[in-house]
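User: I'm writing a tutorial on reading structure tokens. Could you give me a worked example: one chain, its sequence, then its tokens, then a sentence or two explaining what the tokens reveal?
Assistant: Sure. Here is the example chain.
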Amino acid sequence: MFFKSKKKEEKKELLMQKNIRVGCASEPQAEVIRKVGQMLVDSGYVDQPYVEAMLEREKTFSTFMGSGLALPHGVEEAKKDIKASGIAVMTFPDGVDWGGNPVNVVIGIAGVGEEHLEILSVIADKMLDEAAAERLAKGDADTVYQILAGEE
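And here are its predicted structure tokens:
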């Protein structure tokens, strides 16, 4: 399974089912970033300052990836606030305005070292599959978990 932390002493899953929220009501972009970031904090992946670093990243560089996907993550200086690599997912059937772009899937990312690049790569591959992207945007929490954890 891809979404497992590589640190042997940590063994924390990168995606926990409790960090998947589907069918969310549309909210302002900054509020969505705060909520997905707080899930990372509450699960022990990051310290609280990382959430502000996610908002800071958005001010300088949009995390909109196309295909209805946004991948908010912290600025480089916030790496010190990451305790373990992890992701949190929120889906929005009616979409969220992400700097003028419609977004249905938001995946908050925290990656130790260069792990964030591998995480981004796997998510991008999943989103290139239109059927998987559609199921990710409209599926229940189990479906989202299965797609991102590579169990289907």
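What the tokens reveal: The radius of gyration is 14 Å. Residues 17-148 form a domain with the Mannitol-specific EII; Chain A fold (CATH 3.40.930.10).
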